[in-house]
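Problem: given the chain below (182 residues), write out its structure.
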Amino acid sequence: PASAMDSLVELTDDGVTAYGVDQHNTALWNTVLTNSSYGHNMPLWGTTWTPTDINTTLFGVFLKVQNISPIPTSAAVDHIQVTICYSDGTGIHSATSSPSAVQWMSDGELFKATIRFDEISNCSAAVYSPDGKLISSEQFGTIAPGEKEFEFHSSQLPGGMYIWRISVGDKIYTEKIIVANN
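Solution.
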């Protein structure tokens, strides 16, 4: 039975701070693969956005999922696609993102990211506290094109929220991770 539901859907332009009006849906998630839409072409999600805000590599979506069952349940998101509607004085236009080249996974202590890339790239990863303090970092050097799996073990961290940042060439991928009390 379905027991997962949105509890937060907000936008970010820095990978850390949620901005605007929460657009979450209170309906239970379907138990089969389905698409969900949030917002439409007119709202600004409660804030003002500039092209710089939207075009930063840290622009993205915060999605928090709640399990309403007392039985532990897992929920999965295949991808998030964002369509930005904008006006340039000649009319309203839109641009849609592509599904991400990264897959994030976690068992609560071991966090994994699998990233696909098409060219030789320098790779590194770092974990930050919410206030931007560097917690740990690792340099992977130059990696051949293909798929690379990154891992982060959280067993030495106190419980709390952290930002995992992976750089592959000129692309930066960020993920908010929650560490249970260790």
